[in-house]
Design goal:
globular; Growth Hormone, Chain: A; 525 residues; 4 domains; mainly alpha
Length: 525
């Protein structure tokens, strides 16, 4: 690898890390920004979902624009736009303003991510290309999990607004590096246009169900505000798949899903990253809003996950290259799921060493076993000229997984919390002030309600019932998150096929050219 190639790879990793870090770093800031901006659970969900929704909907469009107008140009434009929208987020005076700024930030991210992948694919050739894309993908996975720890430090030491301000110097360095080291490239055979029907159908197909699931706890299933977008969204998503299957120039190449390992690896990605995204969100909320951790303490609580990924992923990557991906892709999600299930022991009086750390370590071990083999399997399943689009689709699947999981599990937890709270309060009537506090509590599951102005006896009843309901709802969320990850292990066990190898360890003739990739994740350090 030449010096220019190394710097180009660093620039693309830095740019993409900013985007994926902002997908999870906000998690630990939600309680504080919720209090400051008066945002309930639905508002906090929208702060996350608005970002992921626009980014996922436009990821493949961003790649198409880069092919047409220049990949470095779109990458730099995306960086600058991401910096500008980060400033808007940092200055947000209201919940609604922040949600709108996050949606714009997701659009900027959609320009950045596919552009960075295409730059890597254009800079490297042969096996070096697969290894470079694997390095890029693995680092984005580490950034996803490191977010809560880094965000907790910033929120605890400065403010929730610092998680957006910190993007600016990192983006400035990346833009400088990109302009000096990345060579401009285009695809002369690229389709000169945008799959507009595909973009609109995919955006509506994701936005409709997400909107319905987030607003359902407030309005109920019978409200047209809920069931109309739900049905319309599902219909649009079906229409999107049908359109992409028949379009002359689709933005999503469905033919890749005919490759067994590619399809199975993405199914595993969907379930594992759904459990990861929703599980870490609920852990952060519960630790802060119920157990009483500060944002900094909550961030440090999950730091061992990042450390496990950083130090153990290279070893499991090499193991998967030697033995095949099926074993680690089976065992890894099972172990990570078990770690998530262990969180079901945590309650209001739990200690970090006994009730949190074992869960975090087991979860981190499982993710370390999963990330590198999963990345390698996606890359190894396709021919060299399709590595970039394969990795882009896989990253898109992981973001869709988090997007839908937060919406679906958030609705389930809200419903469970409300039912458990009503049960805990019993049939004894409440004074108007107490009834108002209960209604407000239902908008903020996994939290302790405000009881200002409520009589002491009723306040104690509400706080006790709410704490019990929050713990029960958290256990349900941890259980569902763990089950999703375990399902990913089962999918891999049934579906993944190890490449056939000669006695010397090389893949047999007819196997994918990337089958010999040995993801040198040790070079990450």
């Amino acid at each position: 690898m030449t010096r220019q190639q190394r710097l180009t790879l660093i620039a693309t990793i830095l740019g993409s890390t900013v985007v994926f870090l902002d997908g999870t770093i906000v998690n630990v800031a939600l309680p504080m920004l919720g209090r400051e901006l008066n945002a309930g659970l639905a508002g906090q969900q929208w702060v996350l979902e608005a970002y992921m929704l626009t980014m996922v909907s436009l990821l493949l469009v961003g790649g198409s624009l880069g092919d047409q107008f220049g990949r470095r140009r779109l990458f730099v434009i995306g960086l600058i736009a991401f910096g500008g929208t980060s400033i808007l987020c940092a200055l947000a005076p209201t919940e609604e303003f922040l949600i709108g700024a996050r949606a714009l930030q997701g659009i900027a991210g959609a320009l950045l991510v596919p552009g960075s992948l295409a730059i890597v694919a254009a800079t490297f050739e042969g096996e070096a290309r697969g290894q470079a894309v694997g390095t890029w993908t693995a680092w984005t996975g580490i950034a996803t999990v490191f977010g809560p720890a880094g965000g907790g430090a910033l929120v605890g030491l400065v403010s929730w607004r610092a998680i957006f301000w910190v993007n600016i110097p990192l983006i400035a360095v990346t833009v400088t590096l990109a302009l000096r080291t990345i060579e401009e490239s285009k695809d002369p055979d690229a389709f000169r246009g945008i799959d507009v029907p595909g973009v609109l159908l995919s955006a509506a197909g994701l936005a409709g169900p997400v909107f319905a699931l987030i607003e359902q706890p407030t309005h109920g299933w019978g409200d047209p505000l809920v069931w109309v977008p739900l049905i319309a969204g599902v219909a649009c998503f079906v229409a999107f798949i049908l359109w992409e299957a028949r379009a002359a120039r689709p933005m999503l190449d469905l033919s890749l899903f005919r490759i067994r390992n590619f399809a199975v690896a993405n199914a595993t990605t969907l379930t594992v990253y759904a459990g990861l995204g929703a599980g870490l969100l609920f852990v952060g909320l519960y630790l802060q809003q119920v157990v009483g951790y500060s944002p900094f303490e909550a961030g440090l609580a999950t730091l061992p996950i990042s450390l496990c990924l950083f130090f153990l992923s290279p070893r499991f990557g090499r193991l998967a290259a030697d033995l095949g991906p099926r074993l680690p892709m089976t065992v890894g999600p099972l172990v990570a799921g078990a770690g998530m299930l262990l969180f079901m022991r945590l309650d209001l009086g739990g200690s970090y060493v006994v009730d949190v750390l074992p869960s975090v370590l087991l979860f981190g071990l499982g993710m370390s076993m999963t990330v590198a083999p999963l990345t390698a399997t996606v890359l190894d399943s396709v021919s060299p000229n399709r590595v970039g689009i394969a990795s882009g689709i896989n990253n898109g699947v992981s973001r869709v997984a988090g997007l839908l999981a937060i919406a679906v599990l958030g609705a389930v937890i809200s419903a469970h919390f409300g039912a458990r709270l009503d049960s805990g309060l019993g049939d004894r009537p409440l004074a108007p002030a107490a009834a108002g506090a209960v209604a407000e509590a239902k908008e903020q599951p996994l939290g302790v309600p405000k009881t200002d102005g409520v009589r002491a006896g009723e306040a104690r009843r509400i706080v006790s019932a709410s704490s019990d309901a929050s713990t029960s709802a958290f256990h349900l969320g941890a259980g569902l998150g763990g089950a999703l990850m375990i399902l990913g292990g089962v999918v891999s066990a049934v579906g993944i096929r190890d490449p056939k190898r000669r006695a010397g360890g090389a893949p047999e003739e007819g196997e994918s050219p990337e089958g010999a990739h040995k993801l040198d994740l040790a070079s990450h350090g």
